[in-house]
Design a protein that fits this description.
Blueprint lengths: L6 H17 L16 H12 L5 E3 L25 E2 L15 H11 L3 E2 L12 H6 L1
Parallel strand pairs: 1-2, 1-3
Length: 136
């Protein structure tokens, strides 16, 4: 696996693969099943639909600040499966340093009260203060 620390995900994937084979009465010696998402986008969608209700708010770094496009989704599933209200960027980077502005993160979170704050990125090369984010 590309990322470490995914032991629980590995177990869930194996269980899903076994159940898919059983559901279609397929012989595992002849058939294989892969339930891994092909990229981070469907993986994020799966997490959002598991954790959030329609119209719940989520916050994540804006793309120019190092975030991921799917962390700022305006609407997932155009048929209404999971329309999410996205708040303004969690914490735009401080222009002078490029660092996350944790004070602004807290102000914005109190204002918009998101159900989920995403503490992950795609292109943020600095360390994230997860303890500080958890307090928010």
């Amino acid at each position: 696996r590309y990322y470490g620390g995914a032991e629980v995900v590995d177990q869930i994937e194996l269980l899903c693969e076994q159940r898919a084979l059983e559901a279609f009465d397929l012989d595992p010696a002849r058939w294989g099943v892969n339930v891994q998402p092909y990229s981070g986008s469907p993986a994020n969608f799966a997490a959002y639909t598991a954790l959030l209700q329609p119209h719940d708010r989520l916050m994540g770094l804006d793309l120019p600040d190092g975030g991921r496009k799917t962390h700022r989704a305006q609407s997932w599933g155009q048929g209404g499966a999971c329309a999410l209200a996205s708040c303004p960027s969690v914490c735009p980077s401080q222009p002078a340093t490029g660092l996350i502005d944790y004070n602004q993160l807290e102000v914005t979170a109190r204002l918009f009260r998101p159900r989920l704050i995403i503490a992950g990125t795609s292109a943020y090369s600095r360390l994230i203060d997860y303890a500080r984010m958890k307090k928010v």
